[in-house]
Here is the input.
Amino acid sequence: MVEKLKAYPETEVFVPRRSEYDLVEKADIVQLLEQSLPDLVIHLAAVVGGIGHNKKNPGRFFYENLMMGAQLIEQSRLHGVQKFVAVGTVCAYPKFTPVPFKEDDLWNGYPEETNAPYGLAKKMMLVQSQAYREQYGFNSIFLLPANLYGPGDNFDLETSHVIPALIRKCVEARRCGAEFIEVWGSGKPSREFLYVEDCADGIVRAAERYNGSDPVNLGNGREVVIKDLVELIAKVARFEGEIRWQSDKPDGQPRRQLDTSRAWERFGFKATTSLEDGMRKTIDWYEKNSLTSEVASLESLAKA
Here is the structure.
C-alpha cells in the first residue's frame, strides 16, 4: 500500500507505527491526527494471526481491534478527515455462507468460532461506517479482502497465517533434509487467497472511486482446497518429503470463496495475479530474505 501511494504525485504518505502511536489508546489517535492532519485515512492496522493464535487470544483480538476501529473512525470524523477506508476481513462472514460469498449474506449467521471475536470486531466498522454516513454524512467505506499472502508476510510459525507457515515449513524441511512436515487439520477445507499487490491495487481503486455504504469484497474468485494448496507450495518450494496431516487440529471455516462482481461494478477492480505466480514470488522472497537473516545472525555471532 505504501509503495503504491507514494507513486502518486503530490501525495504525502504518513505511516504510524505502534511504537509511536498505539491506536487502541484514544490519546494516541488524537495526537496522530493532530500531527498528520490527513485528508484520507486507510485503516489497515490489526491484531491478527492464524487459527492457533486466534484460539489463544480471543479477548485480546476482540478488544484491541474493536477499539482501534471505533476510536479511529470517531476521531477521524471529529478531525475533519474527508474519507475513511476501513479494511475488514473475510473472517466476518458466517461460518456456513453459501459459496461464493456475497456481501448481502454478511449478516446471515455467526462467524466460524475460532475467528469470531476478530471477525466481529472488524465487522463493527461496517456498522459504524454506515451509521456515520447516515447521521453525519461522513464518507467512509468498508472492504472485505480474502486471505492475503505475498512478500513481506509474517512467517512466524506461532502467529502466521496458513500460506507463510506452510512456506516456512517446506523451505526449512528441504534445507535440513527432513523427511516430513506436519500440517494442521484434514486438508479438506477450502480458501481463497489474494496476492498482496492485487489487494493494494483494490484498496487504492476503492479510495479513489468508491463512495458508498455497501461492503465490497476484494478477491480473485478462485477457491482452492487446502490439500491442493499444500501440494502446490511443496512443489514450488522443492520439498519432496511426506506431508502428515494433524487431524486433531481444527480446520476453521469449511469453505471460503468470494463473489467479486461488486468490486468490478463499483470501482473496476479485478485481481490479475494467479495463485501459482503469486506463490513463486512469495517463496522467492522468503528464500532470499531468510538466508539474508541467517547470514546476518552468523556475522553478528562472529563479531561477538
Observations:
- The CA atoms of residues 53 and 159 lie 6 Å apart.
- The first helix runs from residue 2 to 6.
- The two ends are 38 Å apart (CA to CA).
- The mean pLDDT is 93.
